[in-house]
Amino acid sequence: MFVWGDLMQFHVQETMSKGLKAKVDESIDVTALFEGRSDVISKGPLHVSLQVIGNEGGITVDGELSIDWELACSRCLDPVKEHTVIPFFEQFKPASESDEGESDDEEDDVIAVAGDRLDLKPFVEEALQLFMPFAPLCSDDCKGLCQTCGQNLNEHTCGCKTERIDHRLAVLKDLFKEEQ
Questions:
Q1: CA-to-CA distance for 65 and 70, rounded, in angstroms?
Q2: Which pLDDT score is estimated for 19?
Q3: Residue boundaries of the structural domains of the chain
Q4: Alpha-carbon distance 173 to 156, whole Å?
Q5: Distances, alpha carbon 78 to alpha carbons 30, 36, 68, in Å
Q6: How many Cβ atoms are within 10 Å of 114's Cβ, its own excluded?
Q7: What is d(CA 107, CA 91) in angstroms, rounded to the nearest whole number?
Q8: Helices (H), 60-140
Q9: I need a surface site. Which of 39, 60, 86, 179 has the fewest CB within 10 A?
């Protein structure tokens, strides 16, 4: 059932025809997925815990992914430690030529696999990227950075003017100053 020396790759036909069951417990290095991203400060390995079950109609993969990482707060950029648990459920079936023209609602949730090799790693990596925290916060009441000078307002207040004037009406702010 396992092929090519990787615990996340399976022979599709063999897994389906024999009704094989397998457990995948593996840690994956995901450093390359987040290379060049300044919002991801550090990341631990992605822990994968999946149950793979072959049956006559296809292959079902169910379980969860988890990762510990340090992300930049979306308001003040301070490091935020996060533990993310991602539920994972996918169904796979062998691709056939007749599948190309069909669009059955029930079949939309089933992923067609071309060839006899099912590699779960791309699906696991995609799930991680989709479930990544969108706007992590160091605290719910984070004040963020001053838009003028960049001071972290959680640490100190700054002397910058916080008065907001619509730029279209800015000319009117001095209109009555001359009369006084």
A1: 17
A2: 81
A3: 2-130, 143-180
A4: 29
A5: 22, 18, 16
A6: 9
A7: 10
A8: 121-130
A9: 179
Q: How far apart are CA 94 and CA 101, in angstroms?
A: 15
Please give the helix or strand (H or E) that residue 15 lies within, else none. Answer: helix 12-17
Whose CA is closest to 83, among 108, 120, 46? 46
CA distance 77 to 177: 40
What are the percentages of helix, strand and coil residues in the chain, rounded to 5?
A: 20, 40, 45
pTM for this prediction: 0.75
Tell me: the pLDDT tens digits for 90-128?
999 988 754 554 555 555 688 888 888 889 999 999 999
Contacts 24+ apart (CB under 8 A), 63-67: 63/24, 63/88, 64/88, 65/124, 65/127, 65/128, 67/30, 67/43, 67/128
CA 65 to CA 89: how far, in whole Å?
11
Q: What is the pLDDT of residues 21-66, one digit of tens each?
A: 889 999 999 988 988 888 999 888 999 999 999 988 899 999 999 9
Strand partners, 23: 51
